[in-house]
Prior knowledge:
Elements: H1 2-14, H2 32-46, H3 53-67, H4 74-89, E1 93-97, H5 99-104, H6 106-116, E2 119-122, H7 129-141, E3 147-148, E4 154-155, E5 165-166, E6 176-180, H8 184-192, E7 196-200, H9 207-211, E8 214-216, H10 220-234, H11 239-248, H12 251-264
Parallel strand pairs: 1-2, 1-6, 2-3, 6-7, 7-8
Antiparallel strand pairs: 4-5
The chain binds adenosine-5'-triphosphate (ATP).
Amino acid sequence: xxxxxxxxxVSEQDAPASVDSEDEIPADHPRYxxxxxxxxxxxxxxxxxxxxxxxxxxxxxxxFDYLLGEQTIPSADTATRVxxxxxxxxxxxxxxxxxxxxxxxxxxxxxxAETVGAAIEVNLFHRSEERIQRIVAHLEDHGAxxxxxxxxxxxxxxxxHDRARVDREGIYKADVVVVPLEDGDRAQALRSxxxxxxxxxxxxxxxxxxAAHVPxxxxxxxxxxxxxxxxxxxxxxDDRRLSALIDEFDPQQVLDQAERAIRxxxxxxxx
Length: 271
Ligand code: ATP
């Protein structure tokens, strides 16, 4: 009984109060990013753009982000700059959007695509026409003018079921793809199609970042705007210098550095 009371007291102190709007989350809260992220995923589920499974994915990522101090570590920033170089050098870059990405960073994704001249394609693991339509509308509300994904008229070889479906003019044709929070099988299948692959994932041990040419171990809410900033900074750089940046990059090294930061801890503000 005493323990019950104690637990109740602790959880009342620690649990974030439920809020009706994102503006109610105090910007100076030590776990601000996490609270905003959770709120946006919940909203995404309520609006029918995020699958319930997306909540599990977010929960897992949130634990890694906590251990990283909810900050972009230097190796992730290096990888993000290389990713920007990949996108600027590409002939047909595509940013793939799933239900979590649409809920978390719709406007930021549109800005990234505009900055690097990439197409946006909605690509869902749990594919449903209705959910794709909702995500397309959501991205259009945030400034997108053209969003691919509804056609699903081509297939990624080597994958079964609907998760193989992509647009012929989008991911199928792409030379560079950004796949934030991708499923491991699909990340590996895309790599087998000889595409250059940029994966954003907070888990450096997950198969998707391990399949990527450029793994960015960072929260998508920080990584996408950071990618846009690096692309703006590198705009106008000639292809030879972009290629040098890309060739010097070692994906295994950034995965190792991220894993070390998670295991050994990083300097961070009190959370
Ligand atoms: P894999 O199939 O690659 O082994 P998994 O089964 O662990 O991966 P999924 O559930 O398919 O992973 O995908 C979710 C992935 O997305 C997780 O690795 C998780 O860390 C990552 N993730 C979820 N939310 C975010 C976020 N906000 N920022 C970065 N990564 C995220």
